[in-house]
Design brief:
Elements: H1 3-22, E1 41-45, H2 51-58, E2 64-69, H3 78-88, E3 94-98, H4 101-106, E4 113-118, H5 125-128, H6 130-135, E5 139-147, H7 156-168, E6 174-175, E7 193-196
Parallel strand pairs: 1-2, 1-4, 2-3, 4-5
Antiparallel strand pairs: 5-7, 6-7
Helix pairs in contact: 1-3
Bound molecules: S-adenosylmethionine (SAM).
Residues 44-49, 51-52, 68-71, 76, 100-102, 119-121, 127, 131, 187 line the site of S-adenosylmethionine.
Length: 197
């Protein structure tokens, strides 16, 4: 297939993937954000299509919300970033950042976030646990530390990274059935983990 048609097909696919997921109704996973203090600053690390970001924003809970994703590989490209940024632009409180979570976290003050949701690649164990390490100092005391894919069977690396990190910081891992969807997109069906700092 000629190069130009191949890349056109790819951008069409990215567009329709965002389209398909964008209007997905709230189904529980976003409610973990409601454990954080109203009007705090929140962040989702690993955004992909922005379908969960939209649901966090629809809660009207945050004074500001940062959506951070590197969008730098074949599955999640710069083109996808542009689509997601444009769609999220209807929300006044959101800022979209195209960089690694670790880089973005390095540039913000300690204890400046009241809610963090970590959803970078599950198969890498959130970059070998390094996203959790970089995020923890940025959470204020009493803030909610959370993330996706706490699933021993499907995502063992994330499951053990979260367990190891929770031990290191002396917290117990919580999960709740209502933060795990029974239906909806595949990525919504793995347990969300959380604890309070
Ligand atoms: C599972 S998707 C996120 C799904 C999204 N939170 C949702 O619920 O719809 C994982 C995303 O993490 C991003 N990602 C992976 N490692 C990252 C890192 N170290 N920093 C920032 N983004 C990363 C990928 O580009 C990808 O878009």
């Amino acid at each position: 297939m000629p190069q130009q048609r191949r890349s056109q097909n790819k951008t069409d696919r990215e567009e329709s993937r965002v389209d398909n997921l964008w209007h997905w109704p709230a189904n529980g996973r976003e409610d973990v954000a409601l454990l954080s203090e109203k009007r705090c600053v929140g962040a989702e690390l690993g955004v992909d299509t922005g379908q969960l970001t939209r649901r966090f924003l629809e809660l009207a809970h945050f004074s500001k919300f940062h959506a951070v994703d590197k969008w730098d590989d074949i599955a999640h490209s710069e083109h996808q970033y542009k689509i997601v940024k444009e769609r999220l632009s209807v929300y006044a409180t959101v800022e979209v950042h195209r960089m690694t979570a670790q880089e973005w976290l390095k540039g913000i003050p300690d204890e400046s976030l009241g809610f963090i949701y970590i959803d970078c690649y599950a198969h890498t164990g959130q970059d070998g646990g390094s996203v959790l390490e970089a995020a923890w100092p940025k959470l204020s005391i009493g803030g909610i530390f959370s993330g996706d894919d706490y699933d021993r069977r499907y995502w063992p690396k994330t499951f053990s990274a979260v367990n190891q990190f929770s031990k290191r910081v002396g917290r117990s891992v919580n999960v709740r059935d209502e933060f795990c969807a029974k239906a909806g997109p595949r990525m919504d069906r793995h347990p969300t983990w959380w604890w309070r700092k």
